[in-house]
From TrEMBL:
Keywords: Aminoacyl-tRNA synthetase, ATP-binding, Ligase, Nucleotide-binding, Protein biosynthesis, RNA-binding, tRNA-binding. Belongs to the class-II aminoacyl-tRNA synthetase family. The keyword Ubl conjugation does not apply. This is alanine--tRNA ligase.
Amino acid sequence: MSANELRKKFLEFFKSRGHAIVLSSSLLPDDPSVLLTTAGMQQFKKYYTGEADPMRDFKYKNTASIQKCFRTSDIDEVGDERHNTFFEMLGNFSFGGYFKKEAISYGKDFFDSIGLEIEYVTVFAGDKNVPFDEESFNFWENLGIRDIRKCGREDNFWGPTGAEGPCGPTTEIYINGVEVWNIVFNEFYQLKDGTLEKLKTPGVDTGMGLERLAMVSQGKRNIFETDLFLPILDILPGTISERQRRIISDHLRASAFLLSDGVSPSNKEAGYILRRLLRRALVYEYINFLNPQIFESAIIEAIKIYGNFYPELKHRRDDIINAYWAEREKFSKTLSRGIKELEKNENITSEKAFSLYETFGLPYEIIKEFSGAKSSSLTRESFDKEFGKHQEKSRAGAAGKFGGHGLLLNTGELKAKDEEELKKVTRLHTATHLLQAALRKILGENVRQMGSDITVERTRFDFSFPRKLTIDEIKKVEDLINEAISRKLKVKMEEMDIEEAKRSGALYFFKEKYPAHVKVYSAGDFSKELCGGPHVKNTQDIGKFVIIKEEASASGVRRIRGKIIP
């Protein structure tokens, strides 16, 4: 089956079995504990902990999704037959709707429905803290699976490393020697000290990589021979090594997805990951004397392969291509000098490697690969440590001043490393309140917040609405916000009980779980919301607000990006 057919079969299978189909969330998660979305369960995290209600949001206790994912831990491994950075995770999830018996049956039934035979499965063997998962063993045996292998905690128990969260034993499904599907039974909650407590409502969290599923379904030897990669690889010249062709195809494909979700190349956070991918690919272009148009063609092919299922790729096609060329132009100015400098050095230490990165933009992967024995002592850990030292210095003592994280403010939605950034995000935060109020006044009171993210450069606000806004509507919203700003409205804060706040007409984010006593911020008679701050004291302090983009975020959800012009 083609990848498109597999996606369709998976979603139809679970829809027919009482699951709400939920669109993929962005690669930039709302969860501040992770840099990028790494698993399908991330957008459902609050439903496992009880902070959000699946019946209210989905009308079902069970959901299924195909989630865009990105794992930075595999960047150095890309080039072999199985590792890649961006991937799609097919998953079904239950928040008290069903547990082991049904989840295991669904796994068997799905593979039967697409004509694949399970080779063997694994279950948790048990340890001193959690007993052998005899229940899962018996369920598989009753379904006719004879090869059931017992494995330890490292293989068959999932839990957050060094953090709190739901966790539990897993059962894994193998086909042709490949682990295809991992089914997690969230029975426990892990505290920070590693102690496990039984969850009041156990849940199911599963993940199956589409690339691996396509590989076994299409009878291929590796993921790069599937229809998800082959059309991109065919564009790249056969004169370069297979390893380099795989790295280029993976990195350009992943870059297209990051760019489509609004990431820009930079030297920090997700932007740094994107820059590493693009520049690593561009080094291969340089050393192999490739025509620059080849990479653009490869990116366009990736958009063609995925654009029907992820329309944001098509919508932002020109932005993606333009961002690629801009980064290429920026990197090309120093690349040749960087390669020459690399060749001059006899011993590449972590200090020297970082100097090459800082001066010429050479990624760690390229320094390591092209310096050979000269960099025998250089490791990713030592390079990252040197990178961390530089970040600490550039903060000029901010880390010590602001609690050891280099941030003066970090609420998840808002981040600021110093007083100057705090002023900017504060103005944008209040502007975001005005944005929601204006949207409701122009589009109607069915508009409600679905998520937000504010940086020093812009605000990103997701809201429920069934269609694209017209140019006239966008202008009306923008004008109404700036009118409120020009009215010099006072922004005041009141503390009150949560129920009193709701009765007062204050807006609130329905996905959040609020304390019994809350703060309510009002901008004159224009907006009123439950919020923890910070805010300006008067709307005139905001400056002029402009809407820079309006686009789809998910089914029935629109996204607006805006910024302030001082």
